[in-house]
Amino acid sequence: MNKKQYLKGIIEVAERTIKAAKNSEQVIIFGDSDLDGIASVVILKELLEFLNPLYGKENISVYFPNREIEGYGLSFSVLEHLEDRAPALLFVLDAGISNFEEIKKAKKMGFEVIVIDHHQVLKKLPKADLIVNPKQKQDNYPFQDFAAAGLVYKLAEKVLQEKEHPDFLEDRLLELAALATIADMMPLEGENGEIVDRGIEALATTQRPGILALMQLNDIDINSEQDITQKIIAPLNTFKINNHIAESYILLTEPSFQKAKKLAQKLIRQTKEKKQAINMFVRELEEEIEKKDSKKAVIFKYSKAWNTAYLGTIASKLLKLFKKPIFVCKQTETGDCICSVRLPKLMDGVKAMETCKDYLITYGGHAPACGCRLKEKDLNKFGKCLEKYFKKLKIETKNE
């Protein structure tokens, strides 16, 4: 009989999670502010609350970064906000794999750090206490392309194997993992296909008031992938953060249907406003690029006018139009710039940024969809470095 295979680190993280719940330890769950990060946080929090029903606000706290101010991942700014909560067990979800210095500082502050991330591993790993990332070396698990919420669901699955639990609990967690997997545009094959199929099935009988509210207000056909993407995922992917809590997190955890309905209406309205603004920016950029940048190897644009939450969608739309690497950056009031990157298939944005890392504060992500942060003063140098890299790549590709 074959021994069941587990993701590297998942058994140790499962044991540590059970121990934390049993002892009512102080736990902080940090997650990225997109739907994958938010779903990851909800899955882990609900798992801890199942393991210890007495867990409350005093023991578990959640934190979502404001990308406009704090950027992506576990920044030093985030650690300043968390300083008075140490010592504690700090989970970093859908981020962390490239936060080398920040995790080193977190450890010095007294945090025990667990990273659960699915982004591309750079040349080394951060010095976290435990790491789950299928892309790390010596992880021979047969499937690697999970969303972060898929990895946290695998953690929950391992924990629940040894605990008696109601059937509906797995459904509650699965529906979130499925939505996050679709939202993060992960390949819907292998275990992702199973997560999505079972998760959509669970959505049909969901008891989560926030999702029920979205389904009722938007008249959703649960068998339509387009409906799920546009009418459930889009409103949940608004990146609205107040006091380090994502509005989508509030919607997904709100126990009152009436309160959830009011918030769902707000998120639906924000989604429509976001769509209109993005379409306007893309039209303006399309005209500008056709006039000035049509012969360039990479499209590199920056502005103070764009909302950070719009960058990924703007980049994706420009990629469809121009079929070349897209880097769009928001200039913030702090003097830093936050960039979203989208590339054609078979191109690696992380590798490109690795080549130009001297101008970057942080960078990381997936090969075709990634991002970085840099100082405003380095924008032009970074843009020139990227142009040089992609021109050379184009010549090398032609000669092959």
Jot down its keywords.
400 residues, alpha/beta, inorganic pyrophosphatase (n-terminal core), Diaminopimelate Epimerase, Chain A, domain 1, 2 domains, globular
Describe this structure in words.
The chain has 400 residues and is an alpha/beta fold. It has helices at residues 10-22, 35-51, 67-70, 76-82, 100-108, 148-161, 167-183, 190-203, 209-218, 225-236, 247-253, 257-292, 311-322, 349-355, 379-399, and strands spanning 27-31, 60-63, 88-93, 111-116, 130-132, 241-242, 245-246, 299-303, 326-331, 336-342, 362-365, 369-375. The chain has two domains: 10-207, inorganic pyrophosphatase (n-terminal core) (Alpha-Beta Complex), CATH 3.90.1640.30; 293-399, Diaminopimelate Epimerase, Chain A, domain 1 (Roll). Strands 2-1-3-4-5 form a five-stranded parallel β-sheet, sandwiched between helices. A five-stranded mixed β-sheet has the order 8-9-10-12-11. Helix 2 (35-51) runs antiparallel to helix 7 (167-183). The model has no long low-confidence stretch (mean pLDDT 93).
